[in-house]
């Protein structure tokens, strides 16, 4: 997984170069593990609340309930995380999520990235608790710091769901400089896969640079001034999208869309530099003693 970026933090969990996709602190709906039902997981499970509250899924989607039941990790999941084959194929976190989600009718590629991140966050907390010890290099003096992060202190971003139609994944934003009105969506795992495949294809043709930002904008924007044709959207992004508008648009998504504020206060032990940092995510996040 990774970490995962702007339009919505894995998974690898990643997005635009200037933003790491945050992971969310799920609210525990049932603090005590529920009584196991016949035919379901033999292991303790926990029901978590999703940052989207299920608001943007169609009613037919089980995720529209706004909750997700997860079983606690076992040695089986450790085997998944330890698999070099899965890691090299970049599907290790997909397999992990498939293994711990109790409701096998859920189509995980339809899960919004913010909710997917919430699931990963919950998996880690259920397995190893809230303390996360990492080593971080100071951006000012490069000193390596031992940092202990309390994952329980990260809260979901406030969002007024009532301002948006239920069951619709559609939002609008007027670009502050060009005044062009664009609509956009929150990305799913399926979208992320399509983005990665397009980037791979582009790299075969043009290896000079990755074109990460424009490719992701192609997929997140759904219309330009009411025109939803793919050709129009791509022409706008490549030829008309002012850089200062692009920055403001990505900032708007990062700061206002349903997600988690997964930043923490970092203070360098050597130079005293202070700044807000994102929680770093790698395989050790899920297997700290591995």
Which short descriptors sum up this protein?
290 residues, three-stranded antiparallel beta sheet, alpha+beta, two-stranded antiparallel sheet, disordered N terminus, globular
The fraction of residues in strands falls at: 15-25%
Order of helices and strands: EEHHHHEEEEHHEHHEEH
**Strand arrangement, largest sheet?**
5-6-7
Distance between the termini: 16 Å
- Mean pLDDT over the full residue set: 84
Computed CA radius of gyration, to the nearest angstrom = 20 Å
**Helix- and strand-based class?**
alpha+beta
Count the E strands.
Answer: 9
Low-confidence stretches: 1-39
Count of helical stretches: 9
Report the oligomer: single chain
Q: How would the global form be characterised? A: globular
Helicity level, as a percent range?
25-40%
Protein model, in words:
This protein is of the alpha+beta class. It starts with 44 loop residues before the first strand and ends with a helix. Residues 1-39 have low confidence and may be disordered. It has a domain at 161-256. The protein is globular, with a radius of gyration of 20 Å. Strand 5 (171-174) and strand 6 form a beta hairpin. The longest helix has 17 residues, at 189-205. The strands form four sheets. A three-stranded antiparallel β-sheet has the order 5-6-7. Strands 1-2 form a two-stranded antiparallel sheet. Strands 3-4 form a two-stranded antiparallel ribbon. The chain is built from nine helices and nine strands. It has helices spanning 75-82, 84-88, 92-100, 113-128, 189-205, 212-220, 230-240, 243-256, 283-286, and strands at residues 45-49, 67-71, 131-137, 144-150, 171-174, 181-184, 221-224, 263-267, 274-278.
């Amino acid at each position: 997984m990774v970490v995962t970026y702007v339009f919505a933090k894995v998974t690898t969990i990643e997005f635009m170069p200037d933003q790491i996709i945050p992971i969310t602190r799920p609210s525990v709906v049932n603090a005590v593990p529920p009584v196991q039902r016949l035919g379901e997981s033999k292991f303790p499970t926990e029901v978590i609340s999703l940052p989207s509250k299920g608001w943007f899924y169609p009613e037919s989607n089980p995720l529209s309930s706004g909750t997700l039941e997860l079983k606690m990790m076992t040695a089986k999941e450790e085997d998944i995380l330890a698999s070099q084959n899965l890691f090299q194929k970049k599907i290790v976190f997909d397999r992990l999520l498939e293994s711990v989600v109790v409701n096998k009718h859920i189509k995980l590629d339809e899960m919004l990235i913010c909710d997917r991140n919430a699931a990963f966050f919950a998996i880690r907390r259920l397995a190893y608790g809230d303390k996360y010890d990492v080593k971080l290099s100071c951006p000012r003096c490069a000193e390596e710091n031992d940092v202990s992060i309390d994952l329980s202190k990260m809260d979901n971003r406030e969002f007024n769901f009532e301002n948006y139609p239920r069951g619709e994944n559609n939002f609008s934003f007027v670009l502050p400089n060009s005044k062009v009105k664009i609509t956009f969506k929150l990305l799913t795992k399926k979208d992320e896969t399509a983005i990665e495949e397009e980037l791979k294809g582009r790299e075969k043709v043009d290896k000079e640079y990755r074109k990460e930002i424009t490719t992701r904008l192609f997929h997140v924007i759904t219309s330009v001034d009411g025109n939803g044709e793919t050709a129009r959207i791509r022409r706008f992004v490549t030829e008309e999208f002012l850089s200062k508008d692009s920055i403001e648009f990505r900032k708007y998504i990062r700061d206002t869309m349903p997600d988690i504020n997964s930043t923490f206060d970092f203070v360098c032990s050597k130079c005293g530099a202070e700044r807000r940092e994102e929680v770093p995510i790698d395989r050790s996040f899920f297997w700290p003693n591995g």
